[in-house]
Amino acid sequence: MQKKTLGTALMALLGTTLIRVPSLSAQQWFRTGINLSTAKLRMAVTQFPPQSVDEQLVSLTNTFNDVLWNDLGDSGIFEMVSRSYYPLKIPARPADVDFNAWANPPVSAQFLVFGHTAIVNGHLVITGRLFDVKDTSAPMVLGKRYVAALDTISARDAAHRFADEIIQMLGGGIPGICLTHIAFVSNRTGSPEIWTMDYDGADKRQITNEHSLSLTPAWSPDGQKIAFTSYAHGGPEIQIYSLLSNRYLPFPRFAGTNATPAFSPGGKRIAFSSSMSGDPEIYIANSNGSNLRRLTFTPSVNIAPAWNPKTGNEIAFVSDRSGSPQIYIMSSDGTNVRELTTKGGFVDEPSWSPNGLFLAFTWRVTETGTYDIYVAEIATGNIIQLTENEGRNEHPSWSPDGRHIVFESTRSGRRQVWTMLADGSDPKQLTHKGHNWDPSWSNQ
Amino acid sequence: MSVSRKGVLTASAILATLIFASCHKHPPVVKAPAAAPTVPPTVTLTAQPSTVQQGQSVTLSWSSENATSLDLEPAVGKVQANGSTAVTADQSTTYTLTATGPGGSRTASARVTVTVPPPAASSTTSTSPSVSESTLESEFQVGVKDAFFDTNSSTIRADAQSALTQDARFFNAHPNINFTIEGHCDERGSEEYNLGLGDRRANAAKQYLVALGVSADRITTISYGKDRPFCTEHTEECWQLNRRAHFVLGSER
Questions:
Q1: What ipTM score was computed for the predicted complex, to two decimals?
Q2: How many structural domains does chain B have?
Q3: Are residues B181 and B221 in the same domain?
Q4: Deepest in the core among A87, A160, A216, B173, taking most CB within 10 A?
Q5: Nearest chain B residue to A190, by CA
Q6: What is the SS3 assignment for A314-364?
Q7: Could you tell me which chain A residue has the CA closest to the CA of B207?
């Protein structure tokens, strides 16, 4: 769907000759930039057979098999061969592998993932292998054994770890994201609170319990802290919560509206918006609030700062200094301010790609237009539309592998958190209870 | 701090516009139980009598079907599927009952017109330190008007100027009260941008009052962005109601 619509949609929307590239070549630069290769590796992933009929083992093995399949399928770099084509004899060990059956049609796999599970000394032991079935002389690419506790979370964790190994091995050395998390706001308990979940939507956990408004969560780069906008003590202020010690870390209460914190790539500094001097302006401070420095000086809204995660030398932010919200980029000392795009409409909610080359953002091309996610290549100004004709789509946040984007969408009714590949394909709904928004993807 | 919504004077009655905004191309993975019908809820709301003198109570009665949650605003909150309650409005108020169920949400509205004594009578007595809190609160509800804004704007337009001028008269006549100005926005645009815009609106209203002689240290401002809307329909009428600087009575000085 995306391939058909991107180029023409943009040209129609902009009504200019700024974007003349045919949609296919737009896809190519884009895919290259985000490491979504055009040729996906064809992969067969078996259901690992449990080595006994123990009920608990069978149940945990089912969990492991499901999570492994989903992790590899969602990675964006594999073409998963349907299990309906697989040979009847599923290998558990290397000697069982019939190379021809896997390498030839109808499976025609390049890679085969197989293994088995057992309970040994009260632990779940999973042995997994990755074979290059086209290379019969030295087929083994990976061989791993995982010893896990006998519970669902541990079985899921083992699957995530094995999937990450495979993805890193075959995906250009970029670490997988199966153990990353997504922070978001949910009102399922009645008031908007900060929650976290696994990258695939599992294991949702309530972090704050303030019964006020807790908004705009942002991860520290080490994944151990979440900074957010809090109304717990009245007006909006910056709060930082430590997931390690399960308590709040000190941060000063400045006057006025203090909102939308963002950690610097090194984790030592925080950029945020504050109206302590009158208007909402971008400030940076140390992560304990000291060494405060104001970066913007315009009588307008300046909010939602986002650091370039690659360099730490640039900050994108939203300002309505021109009359409507637009994204600007400045150096992290406040100099060299420039507008991301001058194509009009409302441009909002910047999120940098991990390689620092792209910004994802929400764009409403006209005042009555739709809310959709776009990606801009910063150096060229080229823009690609990722969502179209499916409700309000907003608040993108990039995954650390650069291949995925989490966002909020109303396409299923209420505002919910979704993920998609960074080319707009493969959307998945991660939340269902209450309203859920402001998603933010952790670095690790 | 009080964030009471009661007594918000709306320039026009809110039409109970029935909006069912979402499409269901991608049903949620977790489906509702098969037994639950996905027909939209129905809801009715009446006010008896619909016109009262200030201080008199009004009975709100409602009924609904196929709703799992009912929210009667302002000032009442969550209610059962069918029922009635007595309310005392200090000024004309549009009550809106929002029914939400598996099939979507619907609203019904009922307008209560409250007749009040001429404002000149209250302003001459209002500086008296012996005035009781309830009287002060009702005077506040009658004498203080919210300021409304254009889209993406914190500029004080003509109607807001007259509202704020009246507000300044009230606050200058009641020098012993503090108050809060809440900045609010409509649902369009991001949560983040609207937090900033609401801050600008609250501050613009504050600066206007300060210019008319109201002491800045009596005024607290707070932005709620688009997160505490007065109206939840996806219409321009509703959006206009949400683009406002809203006044909340604070403590006595």
A1: 0.90
A2: 2
A3: yes
A4: A216
A5: B78
A6: EEEEEECCCCCCEEEEEECCCCCCEECCCCCCEEEEEEECCCCCEEEEEEE
A7: A278
